[in-house]
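Input record, target 12 of the design panel.
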């Protein structure tokens, strides 16, 4: 069984929920306090042992490439002023095996993954979506890799959501619960079901471990009504030829794909940030009686 060494981070979306800011700035570069959201995703992959990361970006995403590239002028300035802590922060973002592939048209998540086929080759790999930040004792990506070590099959991350919110997600119809610690064999997938029709409350969240056979399925997946190739459709087809599993994540998930989720995450992370946590807590207490 081949090791999981590579990751895909799709980042070609237009970020329309955050206009006008995303007219000139990649959505993935919006900061969580002082760190771009995409760096949290990259660090999760690295902490799980991923060696090579490819970002599938679009025409307006140059800021992502610049962020993970060196900036000699800035580094030299910090070095001359003996700002070693800041220098380390800057240099740490360049010491990563990062690669970039352009998705010429935003034709869906499945198309973005297919764009990276030649980069992945004949290896299992992970897909990490930038709208979800995960926190747990062990990185969610590492949890998926461990599950792959047990099953040798594709495994998706799922999480229980309130029943009245299942229509916002793709959910799984679990055939069996393989292990009591939250490993399920998936029967099929249901995209955004109404609560009365949902087969479970286990929603698919933004982490996938996939075997390379997914590329053949993606190549044969027809676009939906919106002209997009959906990754879930290809995974559903893959499930007909090899088992697909779901791993239940029980840590903390932060949805930063909406304005309110991004603001809530900034507050939560700000209250843990060593430089500002006391000031932010004091401000919230001062503001609260006025609301």
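The sequence produced for target 12 reads:
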């Amino acid at each position: 069984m081949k090791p999981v060494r590579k990751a895909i981070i799709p980042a070609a979306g237009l970020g329309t929920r955050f206009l006008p800011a995303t007219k000139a700035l990649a959505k993935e570069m919006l900061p969580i306090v002082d760190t771009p959201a995409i760096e949290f995703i990259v660090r999760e992959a690295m902490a799980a042992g991923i060696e090579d990361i490819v970002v599938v970006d679009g025409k307006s995403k140059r800021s992502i490439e610049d962020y993970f590239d060196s900036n000699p002028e800035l580094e030299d300035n910090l070095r001359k002023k003996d700002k070693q802590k800041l220098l380390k922060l800057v240099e740490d973002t360049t010491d990563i095996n990062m690669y970039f592939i352009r998705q010429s048209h935003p034709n869906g998540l499945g198309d973005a993954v297919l764009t990276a086929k030649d980069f992945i080759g004949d290896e299992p790999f992970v897909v990490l979506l930038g709208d979800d930040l995960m926190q747990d004792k062990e990185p969610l990506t590492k949890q998926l890799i461990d599950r792959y070590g047990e099953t040798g099959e594709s495994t998706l991350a799922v999480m229980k959501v309130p029943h009245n919110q299942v229509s916002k997600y793709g959910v799984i119809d679990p055939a069996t619960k393989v292990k009591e610690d939250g490993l399920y064999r998936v029967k099929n997938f249901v995209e955004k079901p109404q609560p009365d029709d949902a087969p479970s409350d286990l929603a698919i969240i933004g982490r996938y471990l996939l075997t390379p056979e997914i590329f053949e399925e993606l190549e044969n997946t027809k676009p939906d009504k919106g002209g997009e190739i959906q990754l879930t459709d290809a995974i559903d087809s893959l499930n007909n030829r090899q088992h697909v599993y779901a791993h239940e994540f029980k840590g903390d998930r932060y949805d930063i794909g909406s304005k309110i989720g991004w603001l809530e995450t900034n507050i939560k992370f700000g209250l843990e940030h060593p430089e500002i946590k006391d000031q932010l807590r004091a401000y919230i207490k001062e503001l609260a009686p006025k609301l």
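The longest helix spans residues 140-151.
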